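Q: Could you fold this chain for me?
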Amino acid sequence: MSLDRFFTPQGDKVKERKRKNSSPEANSVTPKRKGASVKMLSKEDMDELMRRFGILMDTKLDEKIDSLKSELATKAQIDSLELKVDCLQKENEALRTKMNSFRSELDKSNLKMEKLDSMARRKNLVFMGLKQTSTSGDLRSLVCTFITDVLHVSPVPAFEEIIPLGKGSNSPLLVKFERINEVFNILKHTSRLRGTSFGVNRDYTDGVRLSRRYLFQLRKEILRIRPDCNSFVRHDTLVINNSSFRWSHDTGVLYKNGNGVQQLNNIVGSDLGPFVNGLLTGGEIAITNAEGSQLT
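A: Sure. Below is the predicted structure, expressed as C-alpha cells.
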C-alpha cells in the first residue's frame, strides 16, 4: 500500500475538500456494511511512515538550529568583546589610581591650608554674649570693660581690631590681639564664665569647628555612660583618660590614625559604634553646638 495518500499536497487537499463540500452526497452518512474489515498498515508501511516523519522533524530541527546560530555571537566576536572588556577594566583601574593620587594630593593641600589658616587665627578670640546697646559706647570700650570686670584680667591686653560677626546687637565679636601670650592669659580666666551667658572661644577654622562639634557630642554621650571619665576637648582632639581621639568626616572617630571605636569601647565599657555611625549618617542635623563657654 502506498503512503503518498498520507502526504497529499496541500493544494490537492483543498480541492478535494471543496469537491466534497459541494457534493450533496458528501453530507450523507454511508452506513458501514456489517462485517466490513478495517485495513491495517503493514510493518513496511509503518517503517516508511516513521522514516518520513523523522526526515520532516530533522529538517525542522536543522532550520531552527541554523536560525539560533545566526543569532548567536561567534567565538571571534566573543574574544573581541572579552578583549575590549579587559582593556576597559585596565583603563578604569588606571583612572582609579590617578583619582586616588589626586585625592591624596588634595587632602595634603587642604591640610596645609588648614594649618596656615589656623596659624593666622592664633591671636584671635571670639567673645560671645556681649550685648551691644546704644549706651555701651564703642566696641573697644565694651570689650575692655568685659575683660577687666568679668574676666578680671589686668591690665587690658592690646588688640588690633574688633570685627562683629553678625548684624544683631548680641552678635559675637572677633577680637584680634597683638601678641599670642595675651590670648593665653585671657583663656586662663575663662573658667569664671561657667554658668553665665558669656563665652570666649578660639577663632577656629571651619573644619576644626565642625570636628569639635562632633567631638563635643561624642564627649557628651561618653559622660552620660561613664560620668567618672576624665575628658576634655582641646583644639580638634578629644582626650579621654589620657587617650587622644580625633574626628574624620569619612570614617568617624580616629585613634592613632586608625578606627578609634574599639578603643572607646574599651574605655567606656559600652559599644559606641552605633552612636558614631549615627553621627556620620546624620551629619550636622544630629549635632548640637556643645562648645559652650569653656574652651582650652
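A (continued): Confidence is low (pLDDT under 50) at residues 22-30, 284-296.
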